[in-house]
Structures are given as C-alpha cells and as structure tokens.
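note to self — DONT lose this again. spent like an hour looking for the file last time. sequence + predicted structure for the chain T wanted, 194 res
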Amino acid sequence: MLYLASRSPRRHQLLEQLGHRFRSLDVDVPEVRAPDESPRDYVLRVALDKARAGLARCADDPAAVVLGADTEVVLDGRVFGKPADAAAAAAMLQRLSGRTHEVISALWLVDGERESCAVNVTEVTFAPLTPAQIAEYLACGEAFGKAGAYAIQGRAAAFIPRLAGSHSGVMGLPLHETAALLARFGIAPAASFS
C-alpha cells in the first residue's frame, strides 16, 4: 500500500493527478536546518525524516511504501521556509522581488528494505513587486503556510514571468520525478478510481 507522509493538500492533489491510490499520514518532524547544512542536504534530510516517520507509523502493514517530500525556496544560500507572520511574509516577498531564486523539492520513497530519492531544482524569476502588490497579496491570505510566502498555483503566478524547471515541483511534488521513483519501486497508477 502506498502512503503519502504529508498534510499538504497540494501534494495530495498532485499524487492523485498521477493516478495513484494512497493513504495519507500526518507526520510531524522538526524542520530546522543545521548551521553547516547546505539547502539541498537540508531538504533531502527533511524529506527522508518524513518518509521514515511515516513508515514507522505503518508498522502493522508489511507492504507499506511511504513517500516523503519537502520543498523549500532558496535565495543567496538562505532557505525561506513558511513565514511565521505577515511581517515575515512581506520580508520574504520583498527579498524575492525582481530576483531569480531556486525551489528545491526532494522526495524519498521508503519501504521495509529500500530507500530511494529524487531531487528537482527549479529556477523561478519574480517580477519587481511594489509594496502595494505585496500588501494586496498578503491580504488574500495565500502567502501563509507556503515556503517563500507564495503559492505558484494561486495569485502569485502573476508575479512570475519566467520559470525554468518543474511547475509541480514548485507546488511541492515534482510529477516527473515522483512517477519515476514510484516506477522504480514497481508501483503503477491505478487503472481507475471506481
């Protein structure tokens, strides 16, 4: 049985888009970057921690295969997690304004015997944002609970003149890499959802 170790509605939607049947697991792992940890290593570690925590919750299912994922926005080597409040969100958007940043999405698929990973790095360019645009975006509420204080699948799409990589990766689950990882484990999409 395939499990997704994530509370993210976007990840659920994207995995469903691939045609897989799965169950969701609510896992809670610390998301704190070590001082000497690169952004890529940090995202990989958190995704693996989520997958392993999910597998631990499935001890009664010997056929459990768990997908863990993490996505972070990175600018100038700094990881932009989820903003704590409106001031933090505004500061993130001001820093991203008119600049190109990376979005790193890491995946781990684990079962009782194997662990395999994939990483997607997408470059996202923001147009210059005015203070009024930032204030309006914050007022819509979309910035909260999102790495980098924006949702590419929502109103923030209007801020992005250029994207080089995976749109779904920026949303939180790069579909190409996810499909390849699942295929490596012999997990095929369901024939139908009836």
